[in-house]
Design goal:
The complex is a heterodimer of chains A (427) and B (424). Helix content of chain A is 43%, strand content 18%. With 427 residues, chain A is an alpha+beta fold. Chain A folds into 2 domains: 25-222, Metalloenzyme, LuxS/M16 peptidase-like (Cytochrome Bc1 Complex, Chain A, domain 1), CATH 3.30.830.10; 247-426, Cytochrome Bc1 Complex, Chain A, domain 1 (2-Layer Sandwich). The longest helix of chain A has 18 residues, at 133-150. Chain A starts with 24 loop residues before the first strand and ends with a strand. Chain B folds into 2 domains: 17-218, 2-Layer Sandwich (Cytochrome Bc1 Complex, Chain A, domain 1), CATH 3.30.830.10; 242-422, Cytochrome Bc1 Complex, Chain A, domain 1, CATH 3.30.830.10. Helix content of chain B is 40%, strand content 18%. Chain B has 15 helices and 11 strands. Chain B has helices spanning 58-65, 77-82, 107-119, 125-144, 151-159, 174-178, 182-192, 208-218, 269-280, 286-294, 326-342, 347-364, 368-381, 390-395, 399-409; strands spanning 17-20, 26-31, 37-44, 86-91, 96-103, 198-204, 242-248, 254-260, 298-305, 313-320, 415-422. In chain B, the strands form 2 sheets. A 6-stranded mixed sheet of chain B has the order 1-2-6-3-5-4, with helices on both faces. Classes of the chains: A alpha+beta (427), B alpha+beta (424). At the A-B interface, helix 2, strand 5, helix 4, helix 10 and strand 10 of A face helix 2, strand 5, helix 3, helix 4 and helix 10 of B.
């Protein structure tokens, strides 16, 4: 019998997959710091995320949180920056730090066999960092140069400005680095921030992979003995002040051949009942390769290399963003097409076949995203830091499975109104 | 601080089975039952280096066209997404690789899709027209609209006089892709995208029996093409140092130097890899410590190499601190290079870069996706089993061998330098 290449093979619908988020283990260190862990995987590797509530929402002066976080690894009272890096790298370990809005992390990726040698020195970063004037000076100089370079890039400018329009320059989500911010940093700022938000700060820990047998006692010895989680955290009220003007066009480089387009509206956080349904709508609009924006603006018109929409990953309040870099002469046409796609979603019900495709894609992708111990822990980390639990996971899956064309149309009518969107092109 | 460090490596061996179809398609299977997913990876032995110098950028353009519908399936993505799968592809100077990750129960969908586009593309004018535009936007986004975006175009053309590595995968110039005709595209496809010029790797929750049956069913009927005998122009040994000055609207001066190095099969490849680690791998590497921290001449500096099959380039590139002169910066880099030539590396520093390599391999091997990429790549090199021998090769490297390799590469007449000046 000849092979039928036209007819697709039978598939099992991803909506019928049994998708589980495997539970974490949990223990509390002597100082009250909670540790969420997931043990598994074939390779002898592990990761540890020390999450401090030391994001930029706790700073009182621009960029202090980010600079403190960056310079954690640049010298302690015992070791120079070089000695620290040399120590970590000798063991083939990666010690990274990242500063977010609410939190800032020290992240360790290592072969399991070296964890015991590394943990004391990671612990040293939390209590003994010294923030020397010399290290700060080098940091300022190099960050200033990096900023100068980035300010030449239209996408960098567009990302900063759209956040400023949405949240206001004084809100942690809307603020950004400036030459003045780098120049005004002092050693004292960093030392004080470090003392309050790391050394005597509040932390929570996430671990995944293969653990050494004595992992818990090691954690207690080197992290559980630190003066963490002892002081109440300050509460800041950062009001969101969105810009009143909605449309912007900025020329950063007159010779530019492309424009960076950002279109965005404010959107509630994950606790809002519309969040899971809107994730489906977002995928349909611009969340994957088969989305309407990609099919129309890239695959049909060829205006851009890629166009995406996404819900920002914020705790307090999110934004729904559409982002692309398009040819200079077709930026206007691109924006017009985005609004057209929004109108279609408001005015027409999505057909069942397309909806099923989006649902299957989302659940298949989720199945892949939960494959492996690091991935499982990352998912839990997002939930813990956003004060969510397994009910949220289950509700998300249930929503994806059950959502109907009429629900999506209602969401589109509520949230995809052009007048709610900020619109920015940076050339 | 480290006393009696004991060498016990923990890299897992990646088990796989291998067979070949009558049409020449090589098939590799790696089973992992701990995952609900499977990865289907098709590597084509065609890279930018195989392009006609007057039609560069074709291998990469093809990566785009391969999603524009095949002879029996109008749209590639939709059925895959309906089956819960995701896919992507990449093109290098040496190869083109397509892969999808899909729930293992729906693995046949991936076979159906991948085999149909190996059978034949749809060759629609519309798809070609759109993807020409998309690639042009990609070109603009990455190489025109970015400061220093043209540096690698210039460096490749400077360092290579003859070998096709002298152009980038995106193409030497926009016009080559803009002028692509449907007949050119067809010829290219039937020359290179044949089963006997491809490697299929399946990893994840599957069995060799299942893959055998599916591969025979879907790929078996595709006719073999003419064997492709690669016969690329080779790069003559460089006999005089070359340099180029560029003045552009960029915020700071950049210095980029390259030296010719061996290819993937040449002795010294692993040594070269470790040399780039010693100089540029991480914040305790020599260039970072000496030139950014101690001397404060650079605000950023990197050292890496191409990792190409044919002889590649070892690269040092960095942005100068404002006010530092190019010649002072250049001299400082060359001093570090001299040091690695003259002084034997301390055993501990060699151990560090070997340990780092072990760690890199372990982390890379975590996902069935990376395992699929690696198996396909090493099979392209000649034998996937080499993947399991890599760490041993690094372990065998000695300080003496590193020094000898450094002396062979870091010769002045072997160097190409791009002085990229800020006009501001």
């Amino acid at each position: 019998m000849a092979l039928d290449r036209i007819k697709a093979p039978m598939i099992k619908d991803a909506v019928d997959f049994d998708i589980q988020l495997k539970p974490y283990q949990h223990f509390t260190l002597d100082n009250g710091v909670e540790v969420y862990s997931y043990e598994g995987g074939a390779e002898e590797v592990m990761m540890m995320d020390l999450v401090f509530f030391a994001g930029n929402c706790y700073e009182e002066k621009n960029w202090v949180a980010a600079a403190t976080n960056f310079l954690l690894k640049n010298g302690t009272h015992q070791k120079t920056a070089f000695e620290l890096n040399d120590y970590f790298e000798f063991y083939g370990a990666y010690v990274n730090r990242t500063c977010y809005n609410e939190t800032a992390t020290i992240n360790l990726h290592t072969l399991t066999k070296h964890f015991e040698a590394l943990l004391p020195v990671v612990s040293e970063l939390v209590t003994e960092s010294n923030f020397s004037e010399e290290e700060l000076k080098i940091y300022q100089q190099n960050q200033l140069q990096r900023l100068t370079l980035n300010l030449k890039k239209s996408d960098f400018i567009a990302n900063r400005l759209i956040d400023e329009y949405l949240f206001g320059i004084n809100h942690p989500y809307g603020t950004y680095s400036t030459e003045a911010a780098f120049n005004n940093l002092t050693r004292e700022d960093l030392v004080n921030f470090y003392d309050r938000f790391y050394k005597h700060g509040k932390a929570v820990i996430f671990m995944a992979g293969k653990f050494p047998k004595n992992m818990q006692s090691l954690m207690n010895k080197y992290i559980g003995s630190l003066p963490l989680n002892q002081k109440a955290m300050p509460v800041f009220d950062h009001p969101i002040i969105s810009a009143t003007t909605k449309k912007y066009s900025i020329v950063n480089d007159a010779s530019s051949v492309q424009g960076s387009i950002r279109m965005a509206r404010r959107f509630p956080n994950r606790h809002h009942p519309d969040f899971p349904g809107t994730q489906v709508l977002n995928n349909l609009l611009g969340g994957f390769f088969g989305s309407r924006l990609m099919r129309n603006i890239r695959e049909d018109k060829g205006y851009t290399y890629g166009i995406h929409s996404f819900l920002q990953n914020h705790v307090q309040e999110c934004a729904w963003m559409i982002s692309t870099d398009a040819g200079k002469d077709v930026c206007g046409a691109t924006i017009e097409e985005v609004y057209k796609e929004m109108a279609i979603l408001r005015n027409e019900k999505i057909d069942e076949a397309e909806l099923k495709l989006v649902k299957n894609y989302m659940l298949g992708a989720l199945l892949g995203d939960l494959d492996g111990p690091f991935q499982i822990m990352n998912r839990w980390k997002t939930y813990v830091l956003n004060d969510l639990d397994i009910a949220y996971f289950n509700k998300t899956i249930e929503t994806v499975r059950a959502i109907q064309p009429a629900d999506l149309q209602a969401l589109a009518n509520q949230y995809l109104q052009p007048e709610d969107f900020y619109e920015l092109v940076v050339y | 601080m480290v006393v009696g460090f004991k060498l016990i490596f923990v890299v897992l061996m990646i088990q796989f089975e291998k067979f070949q179809l009558a049409n020449g398609l090589k098939v590799l299977v790696h089973q992992d039952t701990s995952t609900p997913m499977a990865v289907v990876n098709v590597l084509y032995n065609i890279g930018a280096k195989d392009e006609n110098p007057a039609q560069t950028g074709f291998a990469h353009l093809f990566e785009h066209l391969m999603f524009g519908g095949s002879v029996n399936i109008p749209v590639y993505d939709e059925p895959l997404q309906r089956a819960g799968g995701e896919n992507n592809a990449y093109t290098t100077n040496d190869l083109t690789n397509y892969y999808c990750q899909i729930p293992a129960e729906n693995i046949e969908t991936a076979f159906w899709l991948e085999s149909d586009r190996m059978l034949s593309l749809a060759f629609s004018e519309k798809s070609l027209e759109v993807q020409r535009k998309v690639v042009c936007e990609e070109f603009k986004e990455h190489y025109i609209n970015k400061p220093y975006g043209d540096a690698w175009h210039k460096m490749r053309a400077l360092a290579y006089t003859n070998h096709p590595y002298r152009w980038m995968t995106i193409g030497a110039e926009l016009s080559h892709v803009e002028n692509a005709k449907i007949q050119d595209v067809k010829d290219f496809f039937f020359k290179f995208y044949r089963p006997n010029n491809a490697i299929l790797v399946v990893t994840g929750n599957t069995t060799t029996e299942q893959v055998k049956a599916l591969a025979e069913k879907w790929f078996g009927p595709i006719p073999a093409g003419e064997a492709y005998n690669r016969n690329l122009p080779q790069e003559p040994v460089q006999e005089k140092k070359r340099s180029l000055e560029v003045h552009a609207d960029v915020p700071m001066d950049m210095l980029m130097m390259t030296w010719h190095m061996g290819g993937r099969f040449d002795a010294g490849y692993h040594e070269t890899d470790l040399i780039t680690e010693v100089l540029g791998g991480g914040a305790s590497a020599r260039l970072y410590e000496q030139l950014i921290k101690v001397k404060q001449l650079f605000s950023s500096i990197d050292c890496y190499h191409f990792g190409t099959v044919d002889p590649g380039l070892l690269v040092i590139e960095g942005k100068l601190v404002k006010g530092v002169s190019m010649s002072v910066a250049e001299q400082a880099v060359l001093e570090e290079v001299e040091k690695i030539k003259k002084e034997l590396l301390p055993q501990k520093e060699v151990q560090k870069v070997i340990n780092k390599t072990e760690s890199i391999i372990c982390f890379e091997d975590m996902s069935i996706m990376n395992r699929a990429h690696s198996l396909a790549y090493y099979e392209l090199l000649g034998d996937a089993e080499m993947m399991n021998q890599e760490l041993e090769k690094y372990q065998a490297v000695t300080p003496e061998r590193i020094q000898a390799t450094a002396n062979a590469i870091f010769q002045d007449q072997n160097r190409n330098t791009l002085y990229y000046y800020s006009k501001n």
